[in-house]
Amino acid sequence: MMTHITIAGVAGRMGREVAAAAADDPAITVNGGTVRPGSAQEGATFREAAGIDLPGARLASDPRAIVPDSMAVVDFTTPAGALAHARVCAEYGIPFVTGTTGFTADEQADLRALSRAIPIYWARNMSAGIAALLALLPALADALRGYDVEIVETHHRRKLDAPSGTALALAEAIAEALPGDSPRVHGRSGIAPRQPGEIGIHAVRGGGNPGEHSIIFSADGEEVRIQHRAFSRRAYAEGALRAAGWLVGQQPGFYGPADLGRAAGDAPIQLARYLVGSERELAGA
Fold first, then answer.
1. What pLDDT, on the 0 to 100 scale, is given for residue 130?
2. Is 257 a domain residue?
3. Same domain, yes or no, for 274 and 217?
4. pLDDT tens track for 16-35
């Protein structure tokens, strides 16, 4: 089935990447894109704003001019921009996909409230690889209980939020399997030993790195290190388009990578169970 989408913030780095990925996806057509009112792109053509010419695609600063003609909206903007687009989607019953990060607790609550009217898919990282990691990590953390856990993430100098939303999601997935509160420590300073159960999270900013995350499980005698590297923003754009195609036809609700992973199959979960089973067998040998 062909999915007709609107791209929110189409003039931004991720908006342009989504438009380029959509041009290569035979299951996606782009009705148009939105730009921020008062921005330099207001009044431009779609091609001028998005950097690519897509037949029939329109540009508007008012989402209501385009959203009603769409089957889904894909958003990589700002928390305020994402909520504004989600509210318009709720008015017209249009599914909403967002990879925007940096929401406050109140903004997250507002987004979840809107999901009572429409299906909303939120992922702090849209790539298939991160979705698989989020499914794998709880079982791996359970198998390696007692190991020290550190997460190191690296992004380009222009990224606004630190630590990244992806790093926070990875920490949450690990904490699911650990006893107690598993306090997060953001960076380290001062003079104090590492406390049991902590999950360390460290942010590095520089250059043009589109995204790199390392998860480290350390014991006295060994270390397990898992790394995910994005070579370009295309992985995130393709993941968002995949989510949009899946979200159309879903019931109102708040969805994420785990839901899409279950729909696609449980290979990561089966792998995690295998790893846990192997670890326990070794422990009992």
1. 87
2. no
3. yes
4. 999 999 999 999 999 999 99
Write the CA distances from 277 to 220, 249, 274, integer angstroms: 22, 37, 5
Does the active-site annotation cover 228? Answer: no
| Catalytic site includes residue 155 | yes
pLDDT at 265: 56
Highest mean pLDDT among 109-113, 127-131, 227-231: 109-113
Same domain, 133 and 210: yes
Give whole-number Cα distances, 110 to 80, 82, 169, 171, 247, in Å: 11, 11, 19, 23, 19
Assigned domain for 94 exists: yes
Q: Once rounded to an integer, what is the mean pLDDT over residues 261-269?
A: 57
> Where do runs of H (alpha helix) occur along the chain?
13-23, 46-50, 79-92, 105-114, 128-143, 165-175, 234-247, 257-264, 267-284
CATH of the domain at 207: 3.30.360.10
Catalytic residue among 4, 156, 159, 202: 159
CA–CA gap between residue 211 and residue 191 (Å, rounded): 30
pLDDT beyond 80 at 129: yes
**At 271, is the pLDDT very low, low, confident or very high (cuts 50, 70, 90)?**
low
Range of the domain at 219: 128-229+266-284
* Confidence (pTM): 0.78
CA distance 275 to 4: 40
Tell me if 181 is assigned to some domain: yes
Tell me which of 85, 155, 213, 228 is the catalytic residue: 155
